[in-house]
Amino acid sequence: MSESLRISETHGILRITIDRQSRMNAIDLETMSELGDTIIGAETRPEVRVIVLTGAGKSFCTGADLAAAAAAGGNEASPEVVMDRANDVVRAIVDSPVPVIAHVNGPAAGVGTSLALAADLIYAVDTAYLLLPFTSIGLMPDGGSSAIVAASMGRARAAELALLGARLPATEAAAAGLITRALPAEHLTDQVDAVAAQLAAGPRRALQLTKAAINAATLAQLDHALAREKTGQVELLTSADFYEGMTAMLTHRAPHFDGAARPITDPAQEA
Question: Based on the domain organization, do 180 and 242 belong to the same domain?
Fold first, then answer.
């Protein structure tokens, strides 16, 4: 296990903490893969009764670590592999036989929002926010967020968040039914701990079937959404618009999209 993921287990509660505080818990491919493996591995361990996912420090997870990808010169992995890893984690959270709680201790952005919303219960500090900033760098929402947000908030609000990259405060997300509850910082951990303890002491099989029934009724389109997002994102990850968006973000300037959806083969030619 890398240092970017901290794991602890007590009284049937498996706690997973993304710990990349220098990057506001932006997640790289290695950490994403380990996160998925950890959640999937818990499926065969009857002593695990609930999973709590959180971030270290003041952020939950601020999305994919594009700086790490840029430093790797685009050779970290193919777009297909990147998308498969992200989709695997979302599916692992949704398909887990035990309830998953997202302890959103700070901002959740990009795929970090997707990870939080895939959980069964989502408790956020009231100063946190959710953000889908994909279009600002020439990408589209992924991690199933195109389905999960729309299923929870409706098409109009989902479009506002996804197309405009509008920041959604946790208090508004709770009022709209996108997350379970927004709480003051001094009460958040106690709430999560109390809920986790209640679930850990509950009937594992009954909770599993209840979770599966709710997800089947509300997330019937998730697999189709993940497939559409993968197809679209693989295209966009090799586009000139994404290269421009990523370069602009890393150099702290406004992007200049030319509207051409052409692919690039050599980023140096587009510099």
Answer: no
